[in-house]
Amino acid sequence: MTELELEKENVAIAKAYKELLRVSYRTLTNDDKKLIRKAFDVAVDAHKDQRRKSGEAYIFHPIAVAKIVAQGIGMDATSIAAALLHDVVEDNEDYTIADIEQLFGETVAKIVDGLTKISSLDTEMDVSLQAENFRRMLLTLNDDVRVIIIKIADRLHNMQTMESMRSDKQVKIASETLYIYAPLAHRIGLYNIKTELEDLGLKYTEPEVYKDILTKIKESKEEQDAYINEFNNVIKTSLDKEHLDYDIKGRPKSIFSIRRKMQNQGVSFDEVYDKFAVRIIYKSEPENEKFLAWKIYSIVTDHFRPNPTRLRDWISSPKSTGYEALHITVVGPKGRWVEVQIRSERMNEIAEKGFAAHYKYKEGSEKEDNLDTWVAKLQEALENHETNAVDFVEQFKLNLYSKEIFVFTPKGELKSLPKGATPLDFAFSIHTEVGMKTRGAKVNGKLVPLSHELKSGDRVDILTSETAKPNSNWLDYATTARARGKIKSSLKEDKKLIAEDGKEILRRKLKQLKIVLNEKSVNELVSYFKLKTSLDLFYRIGVGTIDNKMLKEFASSRSNVFMSYIKNKISRKPTLTKEELDKDEITSKYDLLVFGKEEEKLDYKFANCCNPIPGDPVFGFLTINDGLKVHKKNCPNAVSLQSNYAYRIMIAKWIDSSQQEFAAKIILSGIDNLGLVNEITKVISSNMHVNMKSISFQSDDGIFSGKINVIVKNNTLLKKLMDNLKKINGIDKVSRV
């Protein structure tokens, strides 16, 4: 570069720095300005020889990120300094985290360290490693939430300046942004940044679609402005009569959300009617905010008919991100649906700046900052390290993007839960212990199943019992990451206890067969029963899936020469000690597909349109000529099948056949005597792994007959139960139907 060009660049850098200080949302003290200046000088020095792909000096990137942090998100001077320094340690060997700590103190160093760790994650990788890295990234939240906020700003600027990159890199970064960064921004309450990230993500993942919608929005801008004016003119007089200080703005829907609507509803751009919202922003004293919001609501609905099902009162109960507003959908001029958002200036700032505005408007510290609550919730979601990384990120995303409902505790406290939550999610949101001991639930005073979907305004009362504990069906009822994580951990512990018992049972049984339980014999058994780990083997012995007969067959097969050859080839190391048992994991084979609530085995065929494989989320569809066809839940035809032929849909799920539970009906008869029913139920409940579904007895002239429906894991357990029932005094016959 020539000296003149360098001179121009230096002037541009100085100008960018002054702009950063000028646009900061917070009022900067002299100490703040000194801290930011020092960070700027270090960043300029560290990046002096670096250029971006576009050719411009690298220092423009940290300044731009700091500007987003200062103006767009409204963070403090510490965050602005950390944003300026976010690439210093990673890109320059002259600076270490220790240097940053010495120059700027522990807090800035901690944030920069967190950002450096995230940046150093390898990005050329498969999905599971990528997910593992996201998990590690989210764990930096435990250090300082500002790490994530600056990372979102960094990602936004990278997305804004991606033109010079290779197209494959663009698609990769854009997909990653849509996958995790946009949901994170949404959850922190940075709606403007979330919208921009989504639109930029679409720009690079589906460029044609993006350009097409953008062109159409530009073409319809004039028409949209005219429509807003028409809407405005109708209510202006009434608002002015009330001496309100307000502003009415039209806000087009984001390109990404128009695209989503077109996809979900199967409509064209012209058929998306609510392409924009009208925002009424009014000035108000804090004590009058709510009153004025409802006054404006009343004026709007005097002129336009509201849709009663689309009223959203986020003022009385703000979202967990802190968002407050009154949303109504009305029939506007020309019979079009229009969403009207009513917000005070304070609410509008919170909607745009999220927690920074909360901080500004907070009086003293009597209000708990919503960011702290959010971080606490996130840390709960991050607690459960046992799930695999892909499940973890998927579950985490579910919780990020979920819409909220508000339900009441019996004492009238308000609890926020994701849409689709069940009483089980509610129980775990109160306390883990309450969740673990849940026996049933009442919603609005009525007993409901644990799978019941809660609605806003429900009053939920959890019934607990000391003897209650989670079972595998609970995973079908729970939707939140917290509840599912706790249930999975509990089931895993149960399985480990059964596996430990199973190991002792196996030791005894092998002793009778003159076989010693050691590494070699366990390896052979794991291989013989086609299992994956020694823990699988011990668990199946514990629940009786592998019985004496099967073990005798194994013993006789040991003498086979071919088996001896196979054994020698086996090098799988089993886990035998209790410590090692804890580390191992029971594996699911997903080899059996069952249908309906009764989990029946039926004949089926796989659909050619989506070719499901074991483990995929699926559903069954009853065809007229081809019997039962199995489709993936995200099959291209799923939406049309489910909407047009809902009566032909059967729920289906994959299970591990060796761990399946079966329904059986037992018939009893004998001489009736006092306390007989009590004896029978005692025997059933004392039998481990037997679950009684229904029981009915009939007595006729001193003779009784009864039917019991039970759920058991296998034949051995059923036989044992029937033998125990026969021992009861007065019972004559016990048979299975």
TrEMBL record:
- At the top level, the lineage of the source is Bacteria
**An annotated GO cellular component:** plasma membrane
Q: Domain TGS, which positions?
A: 403-464
Q: What does this protein do?
A: In eubacteria ppGpp (guanosine 3'-diphosphate 5'-diphosphate) is a mediator of the stringent response that coordinates a variety of cellular activities in response to changes in nutritional abundance.
Protein family: Belongs to the relA/spoT family.
Gene Ontology molecular function: kinase activity
Q: Which UniProt keywords apply?
A: Kinase, Transferase
Q: What protein name does the entry list?
A: GTP pyrophosphokinase
Organism for this UniProt entry:
Xanthomarina spongicola
SUPFAM superfamilies xref list:
ACT-like, HD-domain/PDEase-like, Nucleotidyltransferase, TGS-like
Signal peptide positions are none
Give the SMART domains listed for this entry. HDc, RelA_SpoT
Key word Ubl conjugation present: no
